[in-house]
Amino acid sequence: MTITLYDYTLSGSCYKVRLLLRFLGLAYERQQIDFFPGRQHKSLEFLEINPLGQLPALRDGTLMLRDAQAILCHLANTYDTSGQWLPRDERFGEVMMWVMFAGGELMNSSAARLHDALGYKLDIEAARANAHAALRVLEDHMTGREIAGRKWIVGDAPTIADIACFPYIALSGDGGIGHEDYPALRNWMRDFRRLDGFHAMPGVAEFV
User: Fold this and answer.
1) Rounded to a whole number, what is the distance in angstroms from the first to the last CA of the chain?
2) How does strand 57-60 pair with strand 63-66?
C-alpha cells in the first residue's frame, strides 16, 4: 500500500511525520508543497486534498488524513506492531495528553517562528510568552522524570508524545525562544537525537 506525504521541508509539523516514518522503517513518497512563498497549500488543487489548506497531509491507500498529531496516531496504530510508539496500556491516556499539548500549547513556538522566519503578522510578544509558558510546563514535567530516573515524556521508551513535542522545541530558537532556562528539555533533546533512525531538518542540528 502506497503512503504519500504532502510535505514542506521547513515545516516542523511535517518533520514530525517524517521522523515517525523513518523510525518505523516505512517507505513513502514525498510530494513537496510550495508553502512559502508559493502558498500552494491554499491552491484549489491542494484544498481538494485538505480543505483546511494545512500541512502535512497523508494518503495511505484510500485513506486521506490531515493534522500531524492524527497522522502520528494513525501510523503508530497501523504499523507499529511492537506497540512502543502508541502504547495500548495505562500509558495511552498520558501519551495522548502530551500529543494534544504538542498540537496546542506548543504551537505558540511555531507561531513565533512563522513571524520571525517568514514575516507572518501576529502578536509576537504574546506568542513568545505563551511558548515559554508551554515550555515551562514540559520542563517541570521532565525535571520530575529525571529525578525519577526516566528520560522520556511517558514510560521507559520514546513514544509519539516525544516525536510530537520535539520539532517545535528544537526549532524554537528560530522564533527568538532560547533553551537557556530549560536544562531538562536540553537533556531530553540530546537523548532524542541519539535514537536510531533520527534525522535532522534545516534548523535542527544533528547533534548538540
Assistant:
1) 37
2) antiparallel
